[in-house]
Design goal:
about 15% helix, 3 helices, Jelly Rolls, single chain, binds 2-oxoglutaric acid, alpha+beta, four-stranded antiparallel beta sheet, seven-stranded antiparallel beta sheet, about 30% strand
Length: about 240
């Protein structure tokens, strides 16, 4: 296949819905269905998917999703350190349209696959110090529809829930990562796997992790075997 990003100059402004004081912008169908299908298929095969196994309180957990880091900065989180790979031609082809909408030159990317409804990501904020106080994050959804929830850190009720579908783009901006945490909850029966890409801008040298969590990674090529049942992990698991 020959994925070609549409030239940014000829694209009309995509329709947008705005939430939480315009700090969450949702572009439904940013990637039209044919393009989203091709991106999903190529990312599934071309991504170097890693299973992350880590120790916490003397027990071992698998991160409940597979992950891959790209770019020229490592986006380390939750005590886990990653070695980013260079952007692939496909990821480079996706970048300009996302940068045009977000107004930021992205240099770091996490790609994740939620293999089934047991995969998810727990409450967290994207507060990597390299992202500065007001990071702009472009988050692309491909594949199964999943819920994306936001709430203030000390509040138990969800303040905003979006159902993110194939081809949707969410841009988070402003001080959102200080006022809110977000989560992709586990779900009983999603219609298959979902790939998420979060493009970010990181400046300065990555500071050393405050507390390194012992972990190891293992490459898992697509198509994935049925994952083992996952137990409840700690924060951001
Ligand atoms: O999968 C998503 O939509 C969110 C991913 C996420 O929260 C993250 O990468 O920080």
């Amino acid at each position: 296949m020959s994925y070609q990003a549409a030239p940014t100059a000829v694209l009309p402004s995509p329709p947008m819905e705005s939430f939480l004081g315009d700090r969450v912008r949702l572009y439904r169908g940013f990637f039209p269905p044919d393009e989203a299908d091709e991106l999903f298929a190529r990312l599934a095969h071309e991504t170097t998917w890693l299973e992350v196994r880590y120790a916490n309180d003397g027990r071992e957990f698998n991160l409940p999703r597979l992950t891959a880091n790209y770019g020229d900065r490592s986006y380390d989180y939750a005590g886990l350190a990653f070695t980013p790979l260079p952007f692939t031609p496909l990821l480079d082809a996706m970048r300009p349209r996302l940068e045009a909408v977000a107004g930021v030159a992205f240099n770091a990317l996490i790609v994740q696959v939620y293999r089934d409804g047991d995969d998810g990501v727990n409450w967290h904020a994207d507060s990597h110090p390299g992202g500065g106080p007001e990071p702009v994050i472009a988050s692309v959804s491909l594949g199964a529809t999943r819920r994306f929830q936001l709430r203030p850190p000390r509040q138990s009720e969800v303040e905003l829930e979006l159902r993110l579908r194939h081809g949707d783009l969410v841009v988070m901006r402003g001080d959102l990562q200080r006022t809110h945490v977000h989560k992709v909850p586990r779900e009983a029966d999603p219609a298959g796997p979902r790939i998420n890409l979060t493009f970010r801008r990181l400046d300065g040298a990555s500071p050393p992790l405050k507390a390194r969590v012992p972990h190891e990674t293992r490459a898992v090529p697509w198509p994935f075997p049925s994952p083992a049942p996952r137990s409840a992990p700690p924060a951001r698991g």
